[in-house]
Amino acid sequence: MPRQPAPRVRSPTPPRPPSPPPKAKPLPYNPRRRTPAVSVLEPLTPDELHFYRTQLGIGTRRLAKRKRSPSYEPPDNRQPPSKRSRDTGLVMDHYNARPEVGIEQRRVSRIIGLRNFNNWIKSVLITRFAHPTLASSTVVDSGGGRGGRGLRGKVLDLGCGKGGDLIKWSKARIKEYVALDIAAISVDQARGRWDSLPRATRFDATFAALDCYSEPLTRGVPPAKLVTPFDVVSMQFCMHYAFESVSKVRCMLQNVTRWLRPGGVFLGTIPNAEQLLMRLDQIPAEASELSFGNVVYSIKFESREPRPLYGHRYSFFLQDAVEDVPEYIVRWEPFVQLAAEYGLHPVYRKEFHDVFEEFQEHNEFKPLLQKMNVVDANGETEMDEDQWEAANIYVAFAMEKR
């Protein structure tokens, strides 16, 4: 694998001395960066530029003015917050507290190259495995959709976050989309992103806050939305949270498979357990902390032993994204055996660097590297060695329901 060149770093501008605030008013919010800013020189595509510009509050304001039909009220028997595990509460609070940022802040993120690369990986996964499945879907827009081109397919996005994959599903020309996440504020932001999509590219969408690892979909999704099965279920960078216990993994698998049609696919991205445990074993016996990483990310285990199949906990930090959130090891082979009980069988699993190796020269995905700002016209990248290392702790997978 060729070494990736380091990104070009913009010299920070010395801050101006603050002016004395008015006596009756508080100091303005004026956070300072801890790390130097990084610029992205390649512009976004027109569609992406329009999409991100509308995230700065315009879409949310339009959403508030739009007349809505009565919303679905789920049964009032959800698990009370006091019954959730402490880790579940930490994860939910963390993602609820993450601010929604615009295009300018994304451009100066320390991990902008990593974000772009991860998005490219997800695009490859969706195009390679979801698109063919959606093409054979029976869920079709009878009205022709989008000027007669037609929309087809139904997607369930578990752990949708703030809606970062909405453009990918729009480009897949799906007809129906159901998005769930434990963080209610993130769900609201995802709904605002969807509302900000150009009307010509918008699909039917349902959003709900739900703990998909402890509750069935019926507690958050209107029954009418579950009559027709899904063609694709997607879980991006979130499935590992279920591995706190076997009961949560089984609940997650039940939610994935109960409404997934035969021949449907389950797509996901998860940390690579083999690599994480190998790195743990490489930590010297005399080390004061069981941690590894770099300036971009860090992983810290609580102990070397025991190593349970479920509930093997570590803390994860990713600059500008994740602040020491508890996560769990996903042992692949035991998971495959458990998933088989629910009719799921693996058809693809590769580490991110292997996905890159496989598709970097592909006729469709090579141009996408530049379009998604993973590389520029000269083949240079904003990803430095630290970001590349952080990307390669993950694997992408696809399973089929049989």
From TrEMBL:
It comes from the Eukaryota. MRNA binds at N118, N119. Residues 1-45, 60-89 are annotated as: Disordered. Residues 12-29 have a biased composition (Pro residues). One of its GO terms (cellular component) is nucleus. Belongs to the class I-like SAM-binding methyltransferase superfamily. mRNA cap 0 methyltransferase family. This is mRNA cap guanine-N(7) methyltransferase. It comes from Multifurca ochricompacta.
